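@channel sequence for tomorrow's demo:
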Amino acid sequence: MIAPAHAHTNPNADLPPTLPSARSDAAAAAQLPLAFAIAVRVYYEDTDAGGIVYYANWLRFFERARTDWLRALGAAHTRVAEEDGLAFVVREIAVDYRRPARLDDMLRIEVRVLEARRASWTLWQSARRAGESDLLVGATVRIAAIRRDDGRPTGFPRWLHERLASATPPAGLPG
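structure tokens (generated this afternoon):
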């Protein structure tokens, strides 16, 4: 059936809900408790011809922080793959590039939990120069669990949800 020309339809009605904007959520996300942080030095290989961090390399920095955070929760990728038959994937990401980083800069890459649902977690990740408060790059990232054998979505293991709940301070407390 074709809708009449005068009917008001939402062209996005069949699209899945999108992540909140990384730009608009930066201030609110920064108030959430810190779940994890790592230090990353910018190497020559991380920079472009202009001497600043190449835009795609920020995703690598964020991936390292998420991987180390999951490992700290007891969910090393190899363990989850072998024992639970799962893999973690990025389902969606929104990135806000605000300021550049340069060769030899020491960065602090942070992970904060925006929402933890049964089948997906939405995280706020940010990058700042060590010792500085100005945001360089922020990202809202939705990760999900899939079954390794067929790639189908599944829930995160209960034990991992429990560890996340016990490791993350309630919102409003300093992180």
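heads up for whoever presents: The chain has a mean pLDDT of 86.
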